[in-house]
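Entry 14. Structure prediction run on the chain below.
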Amino acid sequence: MVFKWFQLLGRLFFPTAARPDKLLLAFSQNRESLQCQYFELAASTGLPRGLRWLNCEWQPTHILLRDRTTTQPNLLVSINLRFEAIAGSDMENVAAVANIRDACAVFQWQKNAWTTSGRTLFNMNPEEAKLRLAASYEPI
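Output returned:
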């Protein structure tokens, strides 16, 4: 009985989702809506300049990182992006616009739920991002 009370108190003060398995489960349970939210927000940023987002193909590769300053968990999910040039933009006659690009979709764990601001790490997969961000983020 006492053990159950400690478990309950622990859940109130220390979210169980801080564990990697719980974080990933929470993401998978809301994956579709998070992916839609990500695409909508990312496509509205105007980045890359002169390009319109056409498609985001979700890959199975992902990595959990913790912000070294705030301890906030982040999830980087591998994606392949396709764009088209916006008529009249500098990119209109650039052949490389049609190339599929590797990137990472970034999700943050806030208030016991995954969310996204549409942040994209272009031209890298999650493993490359982990290496590049090592000064600010650590693997969970």
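The first strand starts at residue 51 and ends at 67.
Filed with the rest of this week's runs.
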